[in-house]
Amino acid sequence: MSEQVERGRGRGDVDGYEKHGGFPVYRAAEDDGGPDFGRLIEAMRVLQDAAVSVSAPADVVRQAAEQAEALAALLEPHRVPEGQQPGGRSMGLPGRGSLLMLPWTVDKFDATGVRSTGVFRRFHMGGNGAAHGGTLPLLFDDLFGMITHAYGRPISRTAYLHVNYRKITPIDTPLVIEGQVDRVDGRKTFITAKLMDAEGTVLADGEALMLVLLPGQP
Ligand SMILES: CCCCC/C=C\C/C=C\C/C=C\C/C=C\CCCC(=O)SCCNC(=O)CCNC(=O)[C@H](O)C(C)(C)COP(=O)(O)OP(=O)(O)OC[C@H]1O[C@@H](n2cnc3c(N)ncnc32)[C@H](O)[C@@H]1OP(=O)(O)O
């Protein structure tokens, strides 16, 4: 984890951050969920990739279903309320340890912007080796959230998000996404970002308006 990301852990204490909106208080998980949480999440991701790409004999599918059901039953008694689980709050893990997020790694996180690197996996495929078009706004939206946070803005929500698909975004290929705050106008934070391949070719670019929540807004 970079020094910038480490510093970002303390943002929950920035004056006004917790008081804004009706959003629950979120803090980064102290220990990234413990020694095996990252392993669990990565194993789940591999399982997701497998689940959407295998064509297995019926007996294998039956065994896999039974094992998946047993695993779910093992975890079920340990559900906790939103904001207490390490998933999504583990800043040292790819995708913050959230299965929903792209498993990307943040390597820059400060007021000048946020950069993250990673690959779209088989799980994220739309067709013909390209990432599903819906997965790109997910990547952009989460980056925009981090950029807002790294800039020191109070909790904000995405009012709009625009993505231009410039070229096919391939799966299993190292990519980088980078963006920054362009301007601030009262509650409004305007952000832009670019998704690029290793040669710097822009595959997609995006812009968003993030609005600081008013007191009580969910
Ligand atoms: C989860 C964090 C883990 C914690 C770990 C610790 C640290 C973490 C570090 C980083 C965090 C990382 C990531 C964060 C994760 C994710 C970020 C994703 C964020 C989202 O994914 S969030 C979900 C999608 N999002 C929504 O679910 C919004 C639904 N919506 C609403 O809740 C309202 O809509 C709201 C509140 C947005 C505004 O409502 P409102 O009533 O307060 O404001 P109002 O409408 O009056 O607009 C005020 C002024 O904005 C202009 N305006 C409004 N909308 C516009 C538009 N679309 N286009 C152009 N202008 C627009 C108006 O024209 C007016 O402009 P003017 O003042 O000039 O007249």
Automatic annotation (TrEMBL):
Keyword Lipid metabolism: yes
Residue ranges constituting the Thioesterase domain according to the UniProt record: 128-203
The entry's keywords: Apoptosis, Cell membrane, Cell projection, Cytoplasm, Fatty acid metabolism, Hydrolase, Lipid metabolism, Membrane, Transit peptide
Membrane-related topology note: Peripheral membrane protein
Enzyme Commission (EC) number: 3.1.2.2
InterPro entries, sorted: HotDog_dom_sf, THEM4/THEM5_acyl-CoA_thioest, Thioestr_dom
Broad EC category: hydrolase
Annotated compartments: Cell projection, Ruffle membrane; Cytoplasm; Membrane
GO MF: hydrolase activity
Top-level division of the source organism's lineage: Bacteria
Catalytic activity, reaction form: dodecanoyl-CoA + H2O = dodecanoate + CoA + H(+); decanoyl-CoA + H2O = decanoate + CoA + H(+); octanoyl-CoA + H2O = octanoate + CoA + H(+); (5Z,8Z,11Z,14Z)-eicosatetraenoyl-CoA + H2O = (5Z,8Z,11Z,14Z)-eicosatetraenoate + CoA + H(+)
UniProt xrefs under Gene3D superfamilies: Hotdog Thioesterase
Family named by the database record: Belongs to the THEM4/THEM5 thioesterase family.
Protein name (database record): Acyl-coenzyme A thioesterase THEM4
Annotated source species: Rhodococcus kronopolitis
